[in-house]
Amino acid sequence: MASTKQPVSPGSDEDLRYAGVDERKRKRMISNRESARRSRMKKQQHLDGLISQVTQLQNGNKLIEQKVNKVDNMYIKLVSQNNVLRAQLVELTDRLCSLNSVLRVAEEVSGFAIDIPEIPDTLLEPWQLPCSVQTVAASANMFQC
């Protein structure tokens, strides 16, 4: 017995069923494409945000580096000035000692009493200050450039 295929009419139930399956596949495929597109856009927006944040952080780092360099240069200048002042202190202390010795010789030769003050210890030992130590409150923006 030969099986005979019956021609399926274009409006049969089977065609409608397959057409419904094909339509669902097509809609699912479109939905998946749209979802993938949204996902790519979301990733791109996130990446753009991260790139923007990196740029901001790099700019912030440059500003901080510039401020640190400026403070470092100021510190170097202050150390240099402090060294100059210390050298001047030594020179002036030596000069004062020399002048005091001249006064002592003049006092011995003349016989007149001359009041020769002693060199204050603070000149020889600057860590021993003659005045009371006062605390200094530093403000948060004290070192802003």
Map the helices and strands:
Blueprint: H1 13-110, H2 121-124
Main location: nucleus
Region (Disordered): 1-45
Organism: Camellia sinensis var. sinensis (China tea)
Describe the structure in brief.
With 145 residues, this protein is mainly alpha-helical.
Question: Distance between the terminal alpha carbons, to the nearest Å?
Answer: 102 Å
Any idea what the radius of gyration is? 46 Å
Helix content: over 70%
Report the order of strands and helices: HH
Strand residues, percent: under 5%
Number of separate helices: 2
Structural class: mainly alpha
- Which residue ranges are poorly predicted, with pLDDT under 50 across at least 5 consecutive positions? 1-5
Outline type? rod-shaped
> What's the total number of strands?
0
Instruction: Write down the overall mean pLDDT.
Output: 81
Largest sheet: none
Biased composition (Basic and acidic residues): 14-24
Main location: nucleus
GO molecular function: DNA-binding transcription factor activity; protein heterodimerization activity; transcription cis-regulatory region binding
Region (Disordered): 1-45
Structural summary, described in words:
It is a single chain. With 145 residues, the protein is mostly helical. Helices cover 70% and strands 0% of the residues. The chain is built from 2 helices and no strands. It is rod-shaped, with a radius of gyration of 46 Å.
Which keywords apply here?
145 residues, transcription cis-regulatory region binding, rod-shaped, bZIP_sf, bZIP_plant_GBF1, protein heterodimerization activity, mainly alpha
